[in-house]
Amino acid sequence: MDDLGSTHWCDSFAFELIGTDAFHFRDSNSRAELTFKELQLSGENCEFCAGLTKLVDYRSRQPATWADSYRYPRRRDGERVMPTEEEMKGAHVQISIHGAKEARNWSFGFEGTSHRTVLDVNVVIGGIPNFYFEILLQRAGPGGRVPVTHKPEGGGYGDDTITYDAPGGWRVSSVSDDGPRPATQVASLEAALGRSRPLEVDFTMLRGWLDLCLSHEDHDLCQQDDEGIHIPGFRLVDVENMCIWEDTDGQAPPFATLSYVWGTEPFLRLVKGNLETLMAPGSLRNAPLPLTISDAIEVCRNLQIRYIWIDSLCIIQDDESDMLEIIDSMDSIYRQSVLTIVAAAGVNAHAGIPGVRPGTRTLVQQQLEVRGVPLIDSVDHRQLRMQTSYQEPEWISGTPWAQRAWTFQEALVSRRILFFTAELAYWSCRQGLLSEDTVEHFKPLIKSVRLDDEFDPLEYQQIAVTFSKRKLTFESDLGRAYLGTQNYLDTKWGGQKFSWGLPHGAFGSFLMWEWNFDTTRRQRQGTHPIKEANGTIVRVPFPTWSWMGWMEGGQLIHFFGDEPDAHSPLFYSFDRASKLVEIKDGQHWRSRPHPIADLLLGESAGSDEVPPSRKTELLETELPPELSATPFLKHRALLFYSQTATLRYDPSAGFKATSSLKIPSGLKMTRREYPFPIMIGDKFYKILEEHQNDEENRENNKEVLRDIKLVAVFGGQMTKPRKFRGKFRTYIWPIIETSPGVWARASYMSTVIFQDLWNILPRKKWELITIV
Residue ranges of the Heterokaryon incompatibility domain (predicted)? Predict the structure, then answer.
């Protein structure tokens, strides 16, 4: 920067465009970069630069600024520290007007998004790219050096405009939805403006959010349905009488719900021994409630919501029948509640809810003005982020709450959510997003993009991927933690059925799930309790064919099996009443897969047993006797007719991959001939042609070689690389027999080979596969 004493970078900066919908962000008037020292020097003669310098310096010293662990540097001693004064002197400050920032609610769909034009300030310290922090400044109202007129319509929800009279510099050519703008019109003022956030929550404003959603005609997706709560003895916390209230007539009153992290420290919970005591009026007033629960009760009191459902106080924790009855209905409880309160910042139930009590929030906002444009910094820069649909917003994804598996379903099924992060309260409903430091605004939805009544594989995919990142204290809780999500999607998509987390609407494709490679991955331990139709509780191990059956690590990879011209077997499973049912694969999607027999029985398929491949019905008499001898197997069994190939491999030649880079390159879609790799257990093996050649060779090597059965479970056309486009490939699983007629996957990784290679494999036959 030259001649800092007389010239300032901000003199020619297009500040008037902040908070408007004008697209004017690619020229020199919208970007600047200078060192922090240069910004300080510029502040000696410029009030705005001085204010911005103060803001950057203040934010650099606040722990809340460094809440993102990936931006918080670790020193050699392992302690995390904030930048020193010397480091700040050399910091680079990158300033730009950014018009593509997006505010998105927590809904995993197209609902509730709006775009913002803000001043984006990135501070890079020490030349280390990921040692930086970001500040976003929003327009706090109308104004600017160019003469403007602010014309609010509809109480702030209309098409407000900024116009100017003087010719020259700030005029931009722009086209609106209604065609070219008038020559005198610069832009429309965005409906969402920044405002000051108090250190303690303003419950009057929060209650206004609730009332707006309850009464606004565009919020039909947010309104309660007529399902009601049908749980015998359903319990709530009575905020007025401070006790446990039990529903005796099936008419539960309006209530809120709490979603929070329990943690490992003990706290008061409902058990058989204290149920009667806690139902007495006033019993909770002097009870040792953890801070998060007492703060949630205070939130309800201030929002005039008399009842709240809190799992630890409304489920009898030492009564398994009571627990399963309610856990099976968790989606209904959260969906029917008036509001879900999310304590996102707490690592346990004792952490409390920031903003409810004095001294629990510390970040103070700075108000600036430049050429008459009022600006205010956003408390949480992560609330404004460009992202794809179905993605969890950054303003919540890094919180302790978002790391836990149990909490995912609680927010997903809720119609209205009040999120409390470390420094900010957010309102998220099906229609939009509000925050304490942004003027409220709901963007009307286009009816054609609402996803409340049709199956969408991309939505399911992102939900499964997001859920898979979350952690559990007890790994066997996975099925119960996901059950509410599954029930919600079943209802939302009009009767979409699931089997162990996999949607029937695209079952064959999603059966091709993959986990990121992990050297410590193993089958999930423990059992999932299922309450059968007759009330009996059975404990079922997790099946090897579902992503639920393997310990998480990293996240689920975007599903394979997305090829055109898909082929898969006809799948069967058992319902809760142990009745065999056909999985209607593809019934709710754009197309149903073709029978896998059509792919495998080509002229060169080499199969010598054709009839079973064409079966369109599976009879109970064809099932392995083991399913009747061990009833719980039915709950985890997947049955289908397909072609198998029995091959031999050298068990002494396997190796463990130490990283994903060491995985054999031929495991996925690249093999057209021998040899090709498979994974058995935690080792990789090569299938060699010379081991398969003839019976004499196999007999001579029977002490060395071992049989492995491979089963074809899916097929489709390749789309890339170009030279292979249109070629068919087959997904195969190595399987091992666990009991007569019952099989399990030998590992969590499929092998994908060209159809041409599958056709020449030896000892193939069609058979019924029962896999658990």
Answer: 255-410
